[in-house]
């Protein structure tokens, strides 16, 4: 659910290069794992991403919440309607202010680690998280940012506790874990 934190790390890889960077939506995704009934883990994916990193290090990634993929059609529908409430909140936005000088000398094919704060705005809430990522400059005009470790996001921080309770009721579950580990793989091009 808090897949969005991943986005900010991308901007760090662009240091020392002129021009803005654009998110390659086909080469980017945010994933998270949900747990139900205490022991059943299920992968989820958000692929409807767009975004950019400006020359001054302002990173923005927008996540189309309707792109949620749980690999079960009825669950996709319920997640959109009851958890993410896409009719009212179709997009989650992740922002970060990055110091691009940190990796100005990263050559094509080089990799470094980056730590940064991301702010996630969704469902009428806004929360900040610390993120750690591997930043790889695939070429002069392509940068990949991949989570080093998941970001743990809690449903109540994002105002999703009511939606989570509704999903539990509809599916007849004993429990749905209110925290999820979120990972990201983001690619930017210039």
Classification by helices and strands: mainly beta
Percentage of residues assigned to helices: 10-25%
Distance between the termini: 29 Å
What's the pLDDT, averaged over the residues?
A: 87
Largest sheet: 8 strands, antiparallel, barrel
What would your notes on this structure say?
Residues 1-17 have low confidence and may be disordered. The protein has an 8-stranded antiparallel β-barrel. It has 190 residues and is mostly beta strands. It is built from 3 helices and 12 strands. Helix 2 (73-83) packs antiparallel against helix 3.
Features:
14% helix, 46% strand, 190 residues, eight-stranded antiparallel β-barrel, mainly beta
State the gist of this model:
14% of the residues lie in helices and 46% in strands. With 190 residues, it is mainly beta.
Q: What is the topology?
A:
Blueprint lengths: L8 H4 L8 E3 L5 E8 L3 E7 L2 E5 L4 E7 L3 E2 L3 H11 L7 E7 L13 E12 L2 E15 L2 E6 L3 E4 L6 H11 L7 E11 L1
Antiparallel strand pairs: 1-4, 1-12, 2-3, 2-12, 3-6, 4-5, 5-7, 7-8, 8-9, 9-10, 10-12, 11-12
């Amino acid at each position: 659910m808090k897949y969005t934190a991943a986005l900010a790390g991308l901007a760090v890889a662009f240091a020392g290069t002129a021009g803005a960077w654009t998110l390659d939506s086909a080469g980017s995704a945010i994933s998270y794992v949900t747990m139900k009934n205490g022991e059943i883990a299920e992968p989820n994916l958000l692929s409807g991403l767009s975004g950019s990193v400006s020359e001054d290090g302002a990173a923005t990634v927008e996540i189309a919440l309707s792109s949620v993929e749980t690999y079960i059609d009825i669950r996709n529908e319920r997640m959109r309607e009851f958890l993410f409430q896409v009719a009212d909140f179709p997009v989650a936005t992740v922002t970060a202010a990055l110091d691009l000088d940190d990796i100005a000398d990263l050559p094509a094919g080089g990799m470094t680690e980056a730590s940064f704060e991301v702010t996630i705005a969704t469902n009428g809430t806004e929360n900040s998280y610390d993120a750690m990522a591997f930043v790889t400059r695939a070429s002069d005009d392509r940068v990949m940012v991949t989570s080093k470790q998941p970001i743990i996001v809690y449903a109540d921080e994002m105002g999703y506790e009511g939606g989570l309770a509704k999903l539990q009721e509809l599916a007849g579950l004993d429990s749905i874990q209110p925290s999820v580990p979120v990972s990201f793989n983001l690619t930017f091009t210039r």
